[in-house]
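User: I've been trying to design a sequence by hand for this structure and keep getting stuck. Would you show me what you'd pick, starting by listing the structure so we're on the same page?

Assistant: Good idea, let's start from the same input. This is the structure you sent:
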């Protein structure tokens, strides 16, 4: 697990590999500038607080209430920004896979009725985020799939909801290509979901729920 000093690692795919759904310039700016800024701000916040330098990104988020009040808000915002972006980028892959494979697919069908109904439900939620934030597919502690929204850089792990997928609906995630049409971006995002990663995350989340 990473801790201070946090670094921006290259994406496991090329910036243009999500074309035509998400354009290369958006990916480049999003990764090399937006994420980088959260990393830089998080490092700057922790710079003069050596006691917290060995805390993992997750611990900084979970245990932010234990941090000095002076840096708490900054850590919550910036660690959240790093976590949410890394999760988002790792959940994407080119290739235009239309439907999820595996056990997660069965769970989605069982929970939402069908993959199409899930898509509609998820899209409606993502469209309804007011201002900036994320929409997530999570597994709760009772092992139920849920779709939830978080504002700004709020994570789900702070609320013990185990994340499987997230879509960044901040305007910087789509404005260059989709302008103000968030709904079109959401539709395109469904074509670049890394379902193998989602399946892995689902299997991992299942270990933490109580039946
Ligand atoms: Mn973003």
């Amino acid at each position: 697990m990473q801790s201070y000093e946090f670094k921006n690692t290259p994406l496991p795919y090329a910036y243009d590999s999500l074309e035509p759904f998400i354009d290369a310039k958006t990916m480049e700016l999003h990764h090399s500038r937006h994420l980088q800024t959260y990393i830089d701000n998080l490092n700057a916040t922790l710079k003069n607080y050596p006691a917290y330098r060995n805390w993992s990104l997750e611990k900084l988020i979970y245990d932010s209430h234990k941090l000095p009040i002076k840096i708490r808000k900054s850590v919550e915002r910036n660690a959240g920004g790093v976590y949410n972006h890394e999760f988002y980028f790792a959940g994407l892959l080119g290739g235009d896979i239309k439907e999820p494979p595996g056990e997660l697919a069965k769970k989605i069908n069982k929970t939402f009725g069908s993959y199409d109904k899930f898509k509609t439900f998820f899209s409606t939620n993502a469209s309804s985020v007011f201002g900036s934030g994320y929409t997530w597919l999570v597994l709760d502690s009772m092992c139920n799939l849920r779709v939830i929204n978080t504002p700004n850089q709020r994570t789900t792990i702070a609320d013990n909801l185990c994340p499987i997928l997230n879509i960044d609906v901040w305007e910087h995630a789509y404005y260059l290509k989709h302008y103000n049409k968030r709904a079109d971006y959401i539709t395109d995002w469904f074509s670049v979901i890394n379902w193998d990663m989602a399946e892995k995350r689902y299997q991992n989340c299942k270990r933490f729920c109580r039946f």
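That's my pick for every position. To get oriented when you compare it with your attempt: The pocket of manganese (II) ion is lined by residues 30, 34, 85, 168, 170, 172-173 (CB under 6 Å). Residues 62 and 158 are 5 Å apart (CA to CA).
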